[in-house]
Amino acid sequence: MAMRLSPQLTVTKGAFYALILVMGVALASCQNMSVRSSAAGTKPTSTAEVPAPLPPGYQDWLAQLRIDAHARGISQATIRTALDDVAPIPRILELDRRQPEFSQTFWRYFDGALTAKRIADGQALLAQHAALLKRIEGQYGVQPRFLVAFWGMESGYGHDTGGYPVVAALVTLAFDGRRADFFRAELFNALTIIDQGHIAPSRMIGSWAGAMGQTQFMPSTFLKYAVDEDGDGRMDIWADVPDALASAARYLKTLGWDGTKGWGREVKLPANFDVGLASIDPSASEIVKPLTEWSALGVRQADGHALPQQNLMAALVLPAGGEGPAFLVYDNYRAILKWNRSAFYAIAVGHLADRLIDTPPLQATHRIEEPLRREDIMAFQDGLQRLGYLKDAPDGVVGGSTRQAIRAFQRAHGLAPDGYANRAVATAILAQAGAAPRT
Fold first, then answer.
1. Do 362 and 424 lie in a common domain?
2. Which residues in 344-380 are b (16+ Cβ under 10 Å) and which e?
């Protein structure tokens, strides 16, 4: 059983972390957060190379962890190899607690994700691994271009798999206590992967949160879906391209991927279109219509041609509001959302897959938009709450409930109900809220 720390010790631990975060500046400077869709940064120095005082209670906690790991069937040899000399990494706690100062905008994200180099490299790899990709498609029903697109988005085709030792990262987050149960379970999963002989602890490198390899799988996802595609007896998503791609395909199949369909398409909306028909819920399932109905409403392909006459159900997504690009998305888009619950990510994966087979770039006008600060978002969320549109406490994040509240506000005040948070809608909400009492 995991040892529970007393409240007094928890406070002491928090204060201690504040101290070692300052002491760990030298370590932090050589560590880099693994960010998807970016070039790999300098890898962090091993914790064994930069000694730091151990936090109170850590050695007792680690001793109990060893006992619990062995009780789960993990060998003593693996426990010694993986956990000897492992200590919490202060930089990881800093990254876990860091809140973004600005909101992300669609075009900023999209431009960073779909660079000319990423597209060109993906096209080259699509050709290089054509036989492998065709074989995997036959096994799991995932089209090659989509597998390569996921590969590119997750790790830059294997060039950015992260810079942190996964076991140490998970030890840090499991001991910290904020999400201890989740990361403790993932730590045991990581030890199981090592114990099964798939990877040595020194090669188990990933993001600061424990996502691993060319597919950025968490250890639990690895144990459920990883594949030994080349038959060498190990499932290696770090250095083995066949294993990584087949594992991604197997995972996508379980998420409901339909290999006979695409993900969606960019479309053009007619003048005075009711943007209230766009889905703003996280799963893009709020309003779903067959393509024939969208066509009857005047929706066209991005080049102006009529929508295809296919029996497809689609939802309309406006990731940058009514003045930005518009997309009709299908069930495979929702499968992408199950992999990563971000509309920006899902659109980027889908469009990258299209660009790999020479589909034209987005036709919508590229707009540079000023991102909202976190404090700006909290301010208009407070205004929405005072006006009675939002029940949740302000948190500085524009999630589904905030977008629904914005849409309700827009409808009540004669504005286009796209549910999109930008500077103009924030200003309108604050103007209406004024000194209105909180409901």
1. no
2. bbbbbbbbbbbbbeebeebebeeeebebbebebbbbb
